[in-house]
Specification:
Elements lengths: L3 E7 L3 H12 L6 E7 L6 H11 L3 E5 L6 H11 L4 E4 L5 E2 L3 H11 L5 E10 L4 H11 L6 E2 L1 H8 L14 E4 H9 L10 H12 L2 E15 L11 H25 L2 H25 L5 H8 L5 H22 L5 H17 L11 H18 L6 E7 L11 E5 L13 E2 L10 H4 L2 H10 L4 E6 L2 E3 L13 E6 L2 H6 L4 H8 L4 E3 L3 E2 L1 H4 L5 H7 L5 H14 L4 H9 L2 E2 L5 E4 H21 L12 H19 L6 E3 L2 E6 L18 E8 L4 H13 L6 E8 L4 H11 L5 E7 L1 H4 L21 H4 L6 E4 L3 E3 L3 H5 L8 E5 L1 H7 L5 H9 L9 E8 L1 H7 L2 H8 L7 H10 L3 E3 L6 E2 L5 H4 L6 H10 L5 E3 L15 H8 L5 H24 L10 H9 L5 H13 L4
Parallel strand pairs: 1-2, 1-4, 2-3, 6-9, 10-11, 10-13, 11-12, 15-21, 16-20, 22-23, 22-25, 23-24, 27-29, 30-31
Antiparallel strand pairs: 4-8, 5-9, 6-8, 7-9, 13-19, 14-21, 16-19, 17-18, 25-28, 26-31, 27-28
Helix pairs in contact: 1-2, 6-10, 7-8, 8-9, 9-10, 9-11, 10-12, 11-13, 12-13, 12-14, 13-14, 21-23, 22-24, 23-24, 38-40
Length: 1008
């Protein structure tokens, strides 16, 4: 009985067969048998095998009269094996020298091993070195010793990431294990992915696997056979897909027979991996002109949802490659892939099916690729109007309006959808002083076009014939930069070209500053009134102008003494005029900067050169009007778009090779609440299990970009979390959202948007932003929702109100809300949402319509209780423990049914989430309930000072009032006043702090 049985199945392998067999026969360890199955080869393989078998009695050849595929070839070989351990070898690969001896030594070290994984050396056959290196790194990665179910999970990602490959030839198996496993497999043909199914069954039965990738056992030729680089037709791809699907189905059937949670999870992971591999081949190997047809063909083989999700994943990956390397498909190709995926989805009736996580990323990337491609054609445009931007913003679909990233030399993030002011001859480094003038300088030095103009990322010309109402500063106010506004203000290229070609110079309208500055105001006094600018700088640049160009003195004096001007640094000029203007302007500014000391100026003060240029433009135009330059000029209104920031739909967390389960968590905030939501998220992540990844989405209206970046930087310390922001203005602006509670803002309604904004999740955790999370939210998220719409905690406050003798809340609950079980009313600050079920119940628009009903007390919370009643999973109170706001535990909570009140009180001994619901917030009221807990986390955030100033401001107000009473000889504040208990510890009598606060109080009231 030999130590090893080596199995080779060959079909038409004449070209590589000799080298393969020789690599076995040349092993120094000789205690083995070699079983070779000839799977009805039609080439010279049979003759080669016959000769080898004649010369070496260890070789057994089994010849088949009909080709049956690799799986049945393995089965046939195993039936013939008599060794203690079995190894497989593909007919186009070779054993490395000394393999069998090394494997024998490793197996003798541990008699319990029934599966030994060893390493390989990858040899490229028509594939890149990078592909070889990547594949070799993956299959040779170190893995700890595995036992039991961990083996299956490691290979198929059931309870974690894919840490191991499922390659059969890279392992030595105990004969007992292998014969048992193959006895449980069907006797049917399986091709292509048969090793995945075989390894699934083997791994489910294995007891112990040891990885010894230091033993390099096989020379694997990447690029030969099915794994080669030869192109596929649509028919070939459909055939391979059928094989993959058959293996996936066999895996699922086998897992179903086990009926264990681990085997079912592993089967799901196996299917996901198989489909990813299949569609990676679709992208890499299917001929470009057959790709669309191949998708249509394969849709009759695979589930519609699989085809849709995998094509969209390929769209995402390919478009990202285009964006980052410029080597991927163009936008037209990507759009074609996307469209065919959607056609198949529509035809397959994907109603109620969860959308893939790649959906929003794919659409966003296509849009970005299209914008990037547009940039490449900008140089050919004879009319180039540059739009300066320093952050991601929306841009119009236009070849005329060309975005330029300003200050590009000062940032690592380069916008692919824009030109850059640091290319060629430039002053990009001076952007903090020159503002959008760095674009103007770059255009002057590097651009050749018939007309050159400038706008700002939030300010554009209005090219329509409509005279619109302006604000006091001469601006037409718009909202979004989109197709609708492009049409409204006639910013389409055809219209813009038609207007521009008829004029030499286009500017914003001449505005009279007296409308907002006063009757006696002048342009000079307007500049002087700017709090962070110095009129002496304006005077200095005029002196420089007059010294260089005396002929402009009259125009400069007239302009500064007047009360009209053109503002915003926006204009369009013929090339000759533009070059003349720049040659006149920039030397003036250069001399000013060289002679001015702005080292102590504020950030706004440093922008003085930009402000000065706005005035100098007026002087330049006035001068040429006065001397009769004969320019044909036109004035167009300026549209100020209030919401120009780029619109991002949230994208599912990109995990790469990290296959830890993802928990999506959604928050709602505005710019003022940034310190609070940051504190809440920080507390959550600090106490969250690292066995999961957390996809954090902040829904907002108007969180400043700088604050977003600050939050991302701070929370970036958690490697298992991703943070993204979604401006929801476009969704909520069309509804009259109301609230009858002064402590509730419109952000509370954002939870109704989650089901649509995160379509790729069927379950989402929603948390209010006034919480401290002490527990592990993965425990909360793991609650089994079943067919319920959500999970939440009963509202002890509401239940207390229900038991009030006046009966007001009870009547409201029954008559207005129509709740059949009033005491089932839940608190909506902590929710586990079954978003898949909620989509089926109502579309997002319907939820927002409900939210516009002003009959409700707590519009958002009442609506959820009304429409979710009877389908709620109730959580332990630990997950939403409300604080004792102004003594409400005794005043209100204690009226609740005893069981509810007792459960709430008990939860305060082991809180997992503390909810600062109500008006008494820890950043407003010192010493409030759970005050110290909140600041334990808040003090570690970058917004600590900002939060502290809020608290101090709230403390100072009553102290000012108290001091007023003392100064006025009133005794309005008694010695035992609660106010004294708050104030005295932080500002004791006789302390310097108290004297400072007294002085503040007097100053506020106008006293000395």
């Amino acid at each position: 009985m030999p130590r090893f049985s080596i199995c080779i199945s060959v079909f038409n392998g004449e070209r590589y067969l000799r080298a393969c067999i020789d690599s076995v026969l040349n092993q120094s360890f000789s205690d083995y048998e070699l079983i070779i199955v000839d799977d009805a080869s039609s080439d010279g393989s049979a003759a080669i095998l016959e000769k080898y078998a004649e010369n070496d009695k260890r070789i057994t050849v089994v010849r088949k009269s009909q080709n049956e595929g690799l799986h049945l070839g393995h089965r046939t070989a195993i039936e013939k094996c008599s060794g203690d351990y079995i190894l497989f070898l593909d007919a186009d690969d070779e054993f490395e020298e000394g393999l069998l001896g090394k494997v024998d030594g490793a197996l003798r070290e541990d008699q319990q091993i029934d599966m030994l994984h060893f390493g390989i050396r990858v040899v490229g056959e028509g594939v890149s070195d990078e592909s070889c290196s990547s594949f070799e790194s993956f299959v040779n990665q170190p893995v700890e010793t595995l036992e039991g179910v961990d083996i299956l999970s490691s290979v198929f990602g059931g309870r974690g990431s894919y840490r191991q490959d499922w390659r059969m030839p890279q392992r030595a198996f105990s004969a007992r294990l292998l014969k048992d496993a193959f006895s449980k497999m069907p006797v049917q043909r399986l091709d292509c992915a048969e090793d995945a199914f075989e390894m699934f069954v083997i791994s489910s039965l294995a007891s112990k696997e040891v990885t010894r990738n230091d033993i390099i056992g096989i020379r694997y030729h990447l690029g030969r056979g099915l794994n080669g680089a030869s192109p596929w037709t649509a028919d070939k791809f459909a055939s391979v897909a059928e094989s993959f699907w058959a293996c996936s189905s066999q895996i699922q059937q086998y897992a179903d027979s086990f009926r264990s949670r681990d085997s079912l999870a592993a089967a799901k992971g196996a299917k996901r991996k198989l489909m990813q591999l299949l569609f990676n081949d679709w992208r890499a190997r299917v001929l470009d002109d057959e790709k669309m047809a191949s998708i249509e063909k394969v849709s009759s083989v695979l589930d519609t949802s699989v085809v849709f999700s995998e094509v969209m994943r390929c769209v995402r990956d390919a478009s990202y490659e285009t964006l980052t390397t410029g080597t991927g498909p163009d936008a037209g190709v990507l759009q074609g892939w996307r469209d065919v995926a959607y056609r198949i989805a529509d035809r397959g009736g994907m109603v109620g099916v969860d959308f893939p996580s790649y959906l929003s990323a794919a659409d966003d990337h296509i849009r970005s690729v299209r914008k990037m491609e547009r940039v490449s054609g900008f140089e050919d445009e004879p009319i180039r109007i540059f739009v300066s931007a320093h952050k991601p913003v929306e841009v119009f679909d236009s070849q005329v309006f060309q975005p330029v990233q300003v200050g590009a030399s000062r940032t690592n993030e380069r916008f692919t959808w824009a030109l850059h002011d640091d290319e060629g001859d430039n002053i990009s480094d001076l952007n903090p002083m020159y503002c959008e003038l760095t674009t103007q300088y770059w255009a002057w030095k590097n651009v050749d076009a018939d007309y050159i103009g400038f706008c700002h990322y939030r300010r554009y010309f209005d090219f329509s014939d409509v005279s619109r109402e302006e604000n006091a500063y001469g601006e037409v106010m718009g909202d979004y930069i989109n197709v609708v506004s492009q049409r409204e203000y006639m910013l389409e290229d055809v219209r813009v070209r038609e207007i521009v070609r008829n004029y030499d110079v286009i500017t914003t309208p001449v505005e009279d500053i007296r409308s907002y500055m006063g009757e006696n105001s002048t342009i000079r006094s307007q500049y002087d009134a700017a709090p962070k600018l110095f009129v002496e700088d304006l005077d200095r640049v005029i002196d420089i102008l007059v010294a260089r160009h005396p002929e402009y003195e009259q125009d400069a004096k007239a302009f500064l003494a007047g009360h009209t001007g053109r503002f915003c640094n926006m204009f369009i000029m013929k090339k000759e005029i533009f070059h003349d203007y720049c040659a006149w302007l920039f030397p003036l500014l250069e001399e000013f900067v060289a002679s001015a000391d702005m080292s102590l100026y504020s950030k706004e003060g440093l922008r003085t050169p930009g402000h000065l240029a706005e005035r100098l433009l007026n002087i330049y135009l006035l001068h040429h009007e006065r001397i009769g330059a004969g320019w044909s000029m036109k004035q167009l209104q300026c549209v100020h778009f209030t919401k120009p920031d780029r619109y991002y739909l949230p994208m599912a967390l990109s995990c790469g090779n990290d296959n830890r389960p993802v928990i999506p968590v959604v928050f709602a905030s505005d710019n003022n609440y940034v310190p609070m939501v940051t504190t809440t998220i920080y507390s959550m992540l600090k106490n969250a299990s690292d066995a999961y990844r957390y996809d954090i989405v902040v829904l907002h209206e108007g969180i400043e970009w700088e604050n977003q970046e600050k939050m991302k930087t701070f929370l970036g310390q958690f490697e298992n979390a991703g943070l993204q922001f979604c401006d929801v203005s476009r969704f909520v602006d069309q509804y009259e959202l109301t609230t009858n509670n002064p402590h509730i803002s419109n952000e509370t309604y954002y939870r109704f948007l989650i089901q649509e904004l995160l379509p790729y999740y069927s379950k989402v955790l929603y948390l209010d932003s006034d919480l401290i999370v002490k527990g592990d939210v993965s425990e909360l998220f793991s609650v089994d929702l079943g067919d319920n719409l959500l999970a939440a905690v009963r509202d002890v406050d509401y239940c207390g109100n229900l038991n009030m003798k006046d009966g007001i809340r009870m009547r409201y609950t029954k008559e207005v809300l129509g709740m059949h079980q009033p005491y089932d009313y839940f608190q909506a600050g902590v929710l586990v949402l079954n978003t898949k079920a909620m989509r089926k119940l109502h579309p997002m628009e319907k939820w927002l319509e409900f939210a516009s009903d002003d009959r409700y007390i707590y519009n958002d919370q009442d609506i959820l209780n009304v429409h979710c009643q009877g389908r709620v999973k109730y959580l332990d109170y630990d997950w939403n423990v409300m604080t004792d706001c102004y003594g409400r535990i005794g005043r209100i909570f204690s009226f609740a049914p005893a069981a509810i009140f007792d459960a709430f009180n008990d939860s305060r001994n082991h809180e997992k989430i503390v909810h600062y619901a109500g008006a008494q917030k820890p950043w407003k009221v010192m010493g409030s309930d759970r005050f110290d807990l909140y600041w334990e986390y808040a003090k570690e955030t970058p917004f600590y000072v900002q939060l502290s100033s809020m608290l101090h401001a709230e403390v100072v107000k009553p102290m000012i009032a108290e001091q007023a009473a003392i100064d006025d000889h009133e005794s309005a504040v008694s010695e035992d006043s609660p106010l004294r208990k708050v104030v005295d510890p932080i500002a004791p009598f006789g302390s310097r702090r108290r004297e400072v606060l007294k002085s503040i109080g007097r100053a506020v009231r106008g006293l000395k």
